[in-house]
């Protein structure tokens, strides 16, 4: 394991000097010849998990920032390691592929230890605060897996229609899984699964599910992110309710851009526009340009990729592949 010192931000985690700043920013500096990959999760201790890419190696490494040090957990292994999710306790999960043995392992990182799990599941895709992960079963299909007991809670298979979930987008802290299947004449059909019970739904007419490839499109309230035909705005919608989708609005700087949700919790959403503007949204304040909420002379355009329950953000640089950023919400 290689350990790298991470440079702290020019602005510390103390509230910024500017009265307009709502986030303090911490810089996570990747070492030379390692590019910053996608962020899988962030927690309010400033910890972040994700991937890094070493120069000359096309396969990612599992990397973890513990609030002070950036840890490259699989440096120079020559194999594939990818963290796909991290919960608020700082536990990260993902996948490791050993090219020499042609084997997949689900991986779990906790208490500064990377554990390879080679039974029942061969990768973890999503993870919640209760210690339940959505895993890819060794052989076929997906299941909810308890990482504490190392056991399958239930398979994501509906015996009523003899159909399995084709892909899970997320599992929230209530234990509800959101995803889709293609069993009905190969048409995409969305569903939530709770306790093994499937509930099927379709978005309202004219809307589409915003599948960002991660759990960020689904929160503990059961809301999912939508897009609308003919509109570039992002929307939130509760499938189990009767309310219409909630329009998150648009920035004055990019009124006609397309808005992508990159992170979502129960109170906030964040993302980027097609014009390159990072934004955050709350029900109280509406949508705001993230750049106006940062200290002056920050680090250029950012891309929000992870959000914890308190509103702290994990962001990638939109222009420089050497950095991650931890944005502490100033109370």
What can you see in these coordinates?
The protein has no helices and 31 strands. With 331 residues, it is an all-beta fold. It has one domain: YVTN repeat-like/Quinoprotein amine dehydrogenase (Methylamine Dehydrogenase, Chain H), CATH 2.130.10.10. The strands form eight sheets. It has a five-stranded antiparallel sheet with strand order 1-6-5-4-3, with no helix packed on it. Strands 2-31-30-29 form a four-stranded antiparallel sheet, with no helix packed on it. A hairpin with a 4-residue loop joins strand 12 and strand 13. About 5% of the residues have low confidence.
Topology:
Layout: E1 2-5, E2 23-29, E3 34-42, E4 48-54, E5 60-65, E6 69-72, E7 80-86, E8 92-98, E9 103-110, E10 113-117, E11 121-127, E12 132-137, E13 142-146, E14 151-155, E15 157-158, E16 163-164, E17 167-171, E18 177-184, E19 187-194, E20 197-201, E21 207-209, E22 224-228, E23 231-237, E24 246-247, E25 259-264, E26 268-273, E27 278-282, E28 286-289, E29 302-307, E30 313-317, E31 323-329
Antiparallel strand pairs: 1-6, 2-31, 3-4, 4-5, 5-6, 7-8, 8-9, 9-10, 11-12, 12-13, 13-14, 15-16, 17-18, 18-19, 19-20, 21-22, 22-23, 23-24, 25-26, 26-27, 27-28, 29-30, 30-31
């Amino acid at each position: 394991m290689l350990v790298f010192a991470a440079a702290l931000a020019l602005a510390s985690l103390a509230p910024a000097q500017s009265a307009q700043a709502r986030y303090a920013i911490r810089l996570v500096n990747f070492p030379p010849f390692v590019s910053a990959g996608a962020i899988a999760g962030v927690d309010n201790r400033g910890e972040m998990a994700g991937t890094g890419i070493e120069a000359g190696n096309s396969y990612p490494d599992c990397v973890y920032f513990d609030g002070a040090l950036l840890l490259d957990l699989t440096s120079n292994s020559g194999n594939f390691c990818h963290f796909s999710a991290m919960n608020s306790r700082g536990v990260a999960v993902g996948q490791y592929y050993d090219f020499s043995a042609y084997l997949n392992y689900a991986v779990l990182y906790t208490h500064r230890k990377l554990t390879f799990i080679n039974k029942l599941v061969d990768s973890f895709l999503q993870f919640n605060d209760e210690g339940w992960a959505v895993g890819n079963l060794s052989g076929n299909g997906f299941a909810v897996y308890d990482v504490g007991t190392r056991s399958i809670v239930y398979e994501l298979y509906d015996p009523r229609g003899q159909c399995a979930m084709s892909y899970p987008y997320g599992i929230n802290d209530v234990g509800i899984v959101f995803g889709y299947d293609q069993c009905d004449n190969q048409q995409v059909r969305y569903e939530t699964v709770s306790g093994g019970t499937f509930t099927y739904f379709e978005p309202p007419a004219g809307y589409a599910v915003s599948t960002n490839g991660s759990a960020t499109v689904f929160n503990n309230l059961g809301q999912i992110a939508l897009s609308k035909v003919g509109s570039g705005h992002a929307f939130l919608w509760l499938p189990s309710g009767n309310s219409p989708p909630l329009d998150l609005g648009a920035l004055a700087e990019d009124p006609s851009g397309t808005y992508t949700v990159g992170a979502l919790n129960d109170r906030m959403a964040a993302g980027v526009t097609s014009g390159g503007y990072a934004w955050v949204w709350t029900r109280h304040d509406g949508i705001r340009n993230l750049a106006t909420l940062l200290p002056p002379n920050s680090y250029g355009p950012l891309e929000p990729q992870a959000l914890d329950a308190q509103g702290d953000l994990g962001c990638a640089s939109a222009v420089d592949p050497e950095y991650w950023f931890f944005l502490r919400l100033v109370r």
